Amino acid sequence: MIRYFWLIVFLAGCSSVAILSDDLDKRFGKTLISDRRTPSSSNSAQHYNQVVRPVLENRCIVCHGCYDAPCQLKLTSPEGIMRGANPELVYNGTRILAAEPNRLGIDAQSTREWRERGFHPILNERSQTAAINMQNSVLFQMLALKQQHPQFAEDGSALVSDELSLGLDREQQCTSRENFTQFAAQNPRWGMPYALPALNQQEHTILSDWIKNGAAMSLPPQLPPEIEQQRDRWEAFLNGNSIKQQLTSRYIYEHWYLANLYFSDLPLFTNQEPEQRPDYFFKLVRSATPPGLPIQIIPTRRPYDDPQVKRVYYRLQLNHASIVAKTHMPYRLNQQRLDWIEQLFITPDYQVSELPGYQTETASNPFVTYRELPVTARYRFMLEEAEYTIMGFIKGPVCRGQVALNVIDDHFWVFFSDPKNEGDKHFEEFLDQQSDNLRLPGESESNSGIVTNWLKYSYLQNQYLQAKNKLLQKYSGPDDKFDTHLIWDGDGQNPNAALTVFRHFDSSTVVKGLVGQNPKTAWVITYPLLERIHYLLVAEFDVYGNIGHQLLTRLYMDFLRMEGEFNFLAFLPQKDRLELANYWYRDTSDELKEYLVNQDKYIIRDPDIQYKTDHPKAELFNLLKHKLTPVLSQKFSLQQHSQPQLLATLAPLNQVRGIAANLMPELSTLMVENYLGQPQLFTLIRNSGHTNITGLLYEEDNRLIEEDYLTLVPGVLGSYPGALYRVSAFRLADFVDALHSMEDEDDYQRLMDRYGVRRTDNSFWKHADQLHSRFYAEDPLNAGILDFNRLENR
């Protein structure tokens, strides 16, 4: 303790004079970039993995884990730590021209390459002595600054001082060693962890000693033989030489490249998940080298861009980074999966005449590129893992997606068209004929105009819907029933048949099951809609794209959302369809209202469902719940996962509406302490009401606070909590009553005073550790490090 106190004092003294780059050369020696990773079996690597890495995960990665980590400093892997920081904003919705991407592990393969791209080190890269390793490390300097100024405000307030700017759009201060002196003088309370309690002495010592001794890290571990064998088996399959196999593998890659793939013999398409966290996750990547040789990443902006190599090889690359909840998308591989893919794509008797090229105008259109793969196979491939498929645009290429996500409601249910309806030859021919009308904005790449493209895609969408209407009229006979039998039932076993989506302003969550109260809206998704959603919001979406690309993506998603909604409305009588559509789209333009009327014209007949009440939407939900009962996931059911006495006390939270709901954060966690056993975790979600969600970048103008409501679910849902609550079971009724009766911000502050664990709370890290511990224990497959960047200061 004493030695570090004097070291901090010494460093503070050294920082009283500005340090220029030339001074650094004189004081610390010339720059020498080296690879700090050592074999995973070495003592230094084991120390990093077992001692240092847990501190980084629990105290640092909670803010430095995603694309929007401050200063692009991703601490989730040795490669990210060695890469360092860069002041350039990843999320910049105003850029006129697309930016060069800086994706870790893709766009550069060495620390030196990252330096050439403008990243500066956070560790000492000069003479390697203990003193210089600490004096010339921005990471240590930031930790030491926090130790010097651990308080949040001079007056001891429970809130963080205005000196510390909070919020995702705060101005970044990406200090380097050269300008750290001035930074520290101007911002003495900006040490790390930023706007959170300081590390305790043991944690600070662990990181300080690690930095002092050269900050050695670990190379990826050697895989056990049984994992190697499974990886080799999959790489052999994915790199088969037949044209049919090559086209199939290309399709698989463009849908799996974001997945965290893992090996498990548990059966597919059930609610059964591993009881323990898998030891190894893999990423499917495109490589210029075949299996057996080191992977050589093909660094294209999009997964379908021209690889510029003679032959693409699909490889499974070990993902040894820390698992962050926001980007964690687990996907199971085993022999059953291999057999399933072969049955879908390889075994059927059809021919692939030639491999398609990579020209953008065709590669961005899956209906052209994959026209020779059976439609049924493509739909089944996406449908039977629908949670993962939809998770692609929920968790995929974005960590902050307000432009893309304010195009969906805060809470809605998703159902799917039965694949039996979309596999006949007439439908395959129809999709082939409509491939031009199904073009997507990705053909404009990352630099797009807006107005002319909007008009073009609006016209194409209308042409597609008219053609679809004619197809249904031509092939729908009087004996064809139009009722809920058209909805996929998960083949009686697959829980992916029904999903729930919650949006939290600029992030979102998708889970299996029909979770929460009956929502305002619902979608029914068909194969053409599902494929376009994936390519629009996942495969072709570029966070580094210009403003035109990002806004056009959002505008096109308007079409897809309305298509999914009207597929659901088609199961209601016409009078109710139009009334609901007008309710969902209150206060919109005359042009949009005309579009809604035109959408209704594409519904060729009323459904063959005998409704008995004045609330057909609620009846339809009940019909679908009954149909899907055998497969519905109950993972987030309060009734299934709450003790009876807790359920009775907590249930009223699902009746909170209006101003009391509006005062709550978008997402918060509730830990109920039970002194007879483990605490139980819950998530409170605020669903925001809107007149409509067609407004581009002025969402607040469409808000209806009186329609806000809360949904309480067991466990952890979402990745970005805005508040943390901790309540003992015997005070739970008081908490519920206090929340229910809130009328203003003062009431909310009193709620936080009594039950909240604020940023400034001395027990913050203890609570955060327990929160993560319960998350991993209760949901080992899906758990990951939560992100605290959105914690409120109220």
TrEMBL record:
Key words, A-Z: Isomerase, Signal
Protein's UniProt keywords contain Signal: yes
Name of one Pfam family that matches: CTI
InterPro entries on file: Fatty_acid_cis-trans_isomerase
Superkingdom of origin: Bacteria
GO function terms (MF aspect): isomerase activity
Endpoints of the signal sequence: 1-20
Name of the protein in question: Fatty acid cis/trans isomerase
